[in-house]
Amino acid sequence: MGESIRNLLNTYLDDWYWPDMRITDLIEILIIAFLVYYIIVWIKNTKAWMLLKGIAVLAVFILLAAILKMNTILWLAKNSISVLATAAVIVFQPELRRALEKLGQKDFLNAITLFEKNREPERFSEKTVDAIVAACYEMSKVKTGALIVVERDIMLTEYQHTGIELDSIVSEQILINIFEHNTPLHDGAVIVRGDRIVAATCYLPLSENMGLSKQLGTRHRAAVGMSEVSDAMVICVSEESGNVSYAIGGHIARDVSEEHLREQLIQLKSRVRTEEVSRKFILKKGRRKDDNEGQMEE
Q1: Are 246 and 234 in contact (CB under 8 A)?
Q2: How far apart are CA 225 and CA 247, in angstroms?
Q3: Are 159 and 234 in contact (CB under 8 A)?
Q4: pLDDT tens string 128-142
């Protein structure tokens, strides 16, 4: 049966070119396609898209120079490649750094490696959730602007050092007092790690996403920007409208209800605990396997 099928294919498809494909070639094609797709998406969502258009215009200009045999322009372009490559790295430095940070945040790296195995993130409790939600909607009633960063797995030490370091239990009264108008700590963001406020008046990076609504002010753009460079949940209270919003993973949910915000915080807490249990199970399973191998060798 197999021989007859082979003969049939040889008869009708003899002139066709069939490349010698291996399984590694298919895997390589999938990896390249995955990388190219995410590079295009990354370029499209940042200011690199406008810079890429400028590079395309320059490339067309050089192509015309080659067609018209403008030797001086071609000589300048040829000898400027190394300088342009260095300039591109400098110009794209913020975007390249953000892309590498995003790559390092992928969950599969934590699953297959032991990154940050010596540092267990601090978990926030139900009491902290209640305090944050109550404070946000009390400030919403009187239109007091606020910016609260709830830290998860990625430590925000870099941004913590931009503000005034604290060591305080999270409570509704403390959060309201921090963001009260004309107080020393009201300007900037608060960073919450576990059940404690670790810093206030922190400066956060502004999002450069061109797709964000023009109605969003600096506070909301800072919330989105912080969620783009970390896995934190950033809660924002508008000083103009009193609306409460939150940002996760570069996306912002605007004007959410008290119940919705509480639900998101609880889900975030539950998700973090589930990830922690899964990670401990994987590590424990690996240790048991090593122990069993060691006993077999003995």
Answers
A1: yes
A2: 9
A3: no
A4: 999 999 999 999 999
* Beta bridge partner(s), residue 247: 234, 252
- Going by DSSP bridges, is the β-strand pair 251-253/164-169 parallel, antiparallel, or unpaired? unpaired
pLDDT digits (tens, 9 = 90+) for 42-97: 666 555 666 777 778 888 888 898 898 888 888 888 888 888 778 777 777 766 77
Tell me phi and psi for residue 115, to 5 degrees. Answer: -60, 135
CA distance 170 to 132: 8
pLDDT of residue 94: 66
**What is the distance of C-alpha 178 from the center of its chain?**
28
Question: What are 234's strand-pairing partners?
Answer: 149, 247
3-state secondary structure of 240: coil
Domains and CATH numbers, the chain: 20-112 (no CATH), 126-276 (3.40.1700.10)
Would you say 261 and 129 are in contact if contact means Cβ atoms under 8 Å apart? no
- The CA–CA distances, whole Å, from 124 to 66, 158, 223 equal 63, 21, 20
Amino acid residing at 293: E
Helices (H), the chain: 2-12, 23-44, 48-67, 71-79, 81-91, 93-104, 107-112, 126-141, 157-160, 172-178, 218-229, 258-297
